[in-house]
Design brief:
Shape: globular
Largest sheet: none
Structural class: mainly alpha
Number of helices: 10
Number of strands: 0
C-alpha cells in the first residue's frame, strides 16, 4: 500500500486544451481550402491542387514521427537536470523521452505558418477558362458577423442545418462519407499500434520505431495521393470515372493488405503468462 499513490499531475488539462485549440485552427483549412481552390482554379487543375493539399497533410505526420524519434532520444527533463548524471539510456524501460519538446516546436512552427494566411485576399478573379456556373462564396461575410453579432447566429445555424440535411441526403456523398470513416478508422488504428508492435516484437526503441514508421508508412501514401491527382487531371475523369478508379485502387490496396495476416512473430516467453514458473 505504501507504493500506491494517485497521479497528481494536471498536465493532461494543458494537452487537452492545446489539442482543442489546434483542432479549431486546423479544421477550416480542408473544407474552406478545397472550396477556395474549386472556385478560383481551372477545373482540370483542381484534382492536382487538392492532391497537393492532401499530400502535404501526409508529409506533416511523417516529419512529426521523425521529430518524435529525435525527441525520444532526449531525456524528458532536458534543460532542467544535468544530463551527465543520467545513468539510464533510451533502451532502458525506465527512460522517458522529451515528449513535450515536439509540442513546443510544432506549436511555434504552426503559428509561423499561419501568418501568411492573414494576407490572402477574400476573393480572387476567376480565370476565363473556369466554368461560368461556379459561384464563389465569401465565407467571411457570414462567419464574421455571426461571431460578433448575436442576432445573426440563429439564421446562420438554421442555414447550416438545411445545408447539412441536403448534404447527408445525397446518397453518393453519404456513401463516400461512410467509406472514408472506415478507411480512416483502419488507417489510424494501424498507425497507432504499429510502433508498439515493433517495440514489443522486434525489440526496437521508441525512437527507432517512430523513425521507421515516419520513413516507411507515410511517404508512399503521400506519393499515391499526388499520383492519383495527376491521373485524374490527365484523363479528365468524371465523377463516375473517379468512383471506378477509387474502387479499383481501394480493392487492390485491401487485397495487398491481407498479406499482413501472414506476418508475425512468436510470443515472448513470460513466466506465469505464456509459460509456467517452472
Amino acid at each position: 500500500a505504501g507504493c500506491e499513490k494517485e497521479p497528481s499531475s494536471h498536465m493532461w488539462i494543458y494537452i487537452f486544451l492545446g489539442n482543442l485549440l489546434r483542432g479549431i485552427g486546423e479544421t477550416p483549412i480542408t473544407p474552406l481550402g478545397i472550396s477556395y481552390l474549386d472556385d478560383f482554379a481551372k477545373e482540370e487543375d483542381v484534382p492536382v491542387y487538392v492532391a497537393c493539399l492532401h499530400t502535404i497533410a501526409m508529409l506533416g505526420p511523417m516529419f512529426g514521427f521523425l521529430l518524435g524519434s529525435l525527441c525520444a532520444k532526449l531525456y524528458v527533463d532536458i534543460g532542467f537536470v544535468d544530463l551527465g548524471s543520467i545513468t539510464i539510456t533510451p533502451h532502458d524501460s525506465r527512460w522517458v523521452g522529451a515528449w513535450w519538446l515536439g509540442f513546443l516546436i510544432g506549436g511555434v512552427t504552426s503559428f509561423l505558418a499561419a501568418i501568411p494566411f492573414c494576407f490572402l485576399p477574400k476573393s480572387l478573379k476567376k480565370p476565363e477558362e473556369a466554368n461560368n456556373d461556379k459561384t464563389s462564396y465569401d465565407y467571411s461575410a457570414v462567419v464574421m458577423p455571426c461571431i460578433f453579432q448575436s442576432q445573426l447566429i440563429y439564421p446562420f445555424l438554421s442555414d447550416f442545418y438545411t445545408s447539412l440535411k441536403k448534404v447527408l441526403s445525397n446518397r453518393m456523398y453519404f456513401t463516400f462519407l461512410c467509406c472514408s470513416l472506415l478507411q480512416f478508422s483502419s488507417f489510424i488504428g494501424f498507425l497507432t499500434y504499429k510502433p508498439k508492435y515493433m517495440e514489443q516484437q522486434y525489440g526496437q526503441s521508441t525512437s527507432k520505431s517512430n523513425f521507421l514508421i515516419g520513413l516507411t508508412s507515410l511517404p508512399p501514401v503521400g506519393i499515391g495521393i499526388f499520383l492519383g491527382g495527376l491521373i485524374m487531371k490527365k484523363y479528365k475523369m468524371s465523377i463516375i470515372g473517379a468512383t471506378k478508379f477509387a474502387f479499383t485502387m481501394s480493392f487492390l490496396a485491401y487485397t495487398i493488405t491481407l498479406l499482413h495476416f501472414f506476418v508475425g512473430c512468436e510470443n515472448h516467453m513470460v513466466a506465469g503468462m505464456t509459460v509456467s514458473y517452472e
